[in-house]
């Protein structure tokens, strides 16, 4: 049984967290089910929402990176 854990910056999905998670999990479930030839019911997907102040890339907070984009 595949278990997929998706970590995402919560501010990226804050405008529609339930809708975005539903769409992402459906795509991931479909892809894994198809590739592994297993029933969709056997694919588990979870989300971890990480605050942009707690996520770093290249030594810089994601909050700062997003502000400069």
Automatic annotation (TrEMBL):
One of its GO terms (molecular function) is isomerase activity. Pfam families: Tautomerase (PF01361). The keyword Mitochondrion does not apply. Keywords: Isomerase. It comes from the Bacteria. Residues 2-63 form the 4-oxalocrotonate tautomerase-like domain. The keyword Isomerase applies. This is 4-oxalocrotonate tautomerase family protein. It comes from Sulfitobacter albidus.
């Amino acid at each position: 049984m595949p278990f997929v854990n998706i970590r995402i910056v919560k501010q990226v999905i804050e405008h529609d967290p339930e809708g975005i998670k539903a769409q992402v999990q459906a795509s991931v479930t479909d892809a894994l089910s198809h590739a592994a030839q297993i029933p969709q019911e056997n694919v588990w997907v979870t989300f971890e929402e990480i605050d942009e102040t707690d996520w770093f890339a290249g030594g810089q907070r994601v909050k700062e990176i997003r502000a400069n984009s």
